[in-house]
From TrEMBL:
SMART domains: HTH_ARAC. It comes from the Bacteria. This is Helix-turn-helix domain-containing protein. Gene3D superfamilies: 3.40.50.880, Homeodomain-like (1.10.10.60). Keywords: DNA-binding, Transcription, Transcription regulation. InterPro entries: Class_I_gatase-like, DJ-1/PfpI, Homeodomain-like_sf, HTH_AraC, HTH_AraC-typ_CS, INH-QAR. GO terms for molecular function: DNA-binding transcription factor activity; sequence-specific DNA binding. Pfam families: DJ-1_PfpI, HTH_18. Signal peptide: none annotated. One of its GO terms (biological process) is positive regulation of metabolic process. It comes from Aquipseudomonas ullengensis. Residues 214-312 form the HTH araC/xylS-type domain.
Length: 317
């Protein structure tokens, strides 16, 4: 029997906790035997208030000392608050032996990393938290494009649904792929869903309001299919190319060319929903002279080819 401890902390996301708990319990039901023995633990063994619900636990962290797998569910997006309120857990995690498996769901990766459990190991978390994670934990090998990662008994997953992808992976690891596939079928979810980059928005939210860049972005959205270079953008904004580069990067976090390519590919994602248009027509519609250049950039930004993107959409209908 595989012993699993589910951690419940002050900011634990209820849906993340219940999803993991349900996955292992349903796996037992489908297997017809108790393959996974799950317990819930908190820092002090006391119930944890999580907004509209109080979660009962089976004990404190000592109960998880000898389990096979410790799962840290998502803990919200306020990282400083998360780290401050889980100090006891961090000290406990830092002492975990290498042979004990530790897994994080979504933002729970910050707790593993803060305890040093992800040093020199591959890791992932929610795509929107990538910048902060890299800044805080440069010693971890962040692979933000991945839905989940595995590295020497340390497992991480990306946002929300990726937590289920990781649970399926862990069930396959311990009980066999057949059970993971049965569970995926029962939950009506697809395994091997590709990289997390497929789900991240291509265009960033503006970092700051800029009276020069704001109107230029609106103009770009209307003219992205045209031939556009830096000089034309500077002329449209009535400034020098040097000023444009500086203020554009400050406002969007991207260079003008990077933003333009992402804008075109975003428009292509919409155009690909029309099955009547060929890939060549879509490429030309959004501003690319040839299909090869378009397809290469699409895969680079979206994690899949235009054809695979269109096929995946058609399977939903």
């Amino acid at each position: 029997m595989i012993r699993i401890a589910l951690y419940v902390g002050p900011q634990t996301v209820c849906s993340s906790l219940s999803m993991a708990d349900d996955a292992f319990r349903l796996a037992n039901q489908l297997a017809g035997e108790r393959l996974f023995d799950t317990v819930r633990v908190s820092q002090d063994g006391q119930p944890v208030e999580l907004g509209f619900v109080q979660v009962r636990v089976d004990g404190d962290l000592r109960l998880a000392e000898n389990v096979d797998l410790v799962v840290i569910p998502a803990s919200g997006s306020s990282v400083p608050r998360m780290l401050d309120s889980n100090a006891t857990l961090l000290a406990w995690l830092a002492k975990r032996p290498a042979e004990q498996q530790l897994a994080s769901l979504c933002s729970g990766a910050f707790l593993l990393a803060a305890a040093g459990a992800l040093d020199d190991r591959r890791a992932t978390t929610h795509w929107s938290l990538a910048s902060e994670f890299r800044q805080r934990f440069p010693q971890a090998k962040l692979q933000i494009e991945q839905l989940f990662t595995e590295d020497t008994n340390r497992f991480c997953s990306g946002g929300a649904q990726a937590g289920l992808d990781l649970c399926l992976h862990l069930i396959a690891w311990h009980a066999g792929d057949w059970l993971a596939q049965r569970l995926a079928s029962a939950l009506v979810v697809e395994r091997e869903r590709g990289p997390q980059s497929r789900f991240a928005p291509l265009l960033p939210e503006p970092r700051e309001e800029d009276g020069l860049i704001g109107p230029l972005l609106r103009w770009l959205h209307e003219h992205h299919h045209e031939a556009i270079d830096l000089e034309r953008l500077a002329a449209q904004a009535h400034c020098s190319t040097r000023t444009l580069l500086r203020r554009f990067k400050a406002a969007t976090g991207l260079t003008p060319n990077d933003y333009l390519q992402r804008l075109r590919i975003s428009a292509a994602q919409t155009a690909l929903r029309n099955p009547a248009r060929s890939l060549e027509q879509v490429a030309a519609q959004v501003g690319y002279a040839d299909r090869a250049t378009f397809a290469k950039l699409f895969k680079q930004l979206c994690g899949e080819s235009p054809g695979a993107f269109r096929k995946r959409l058609s399977q939903r209908t």
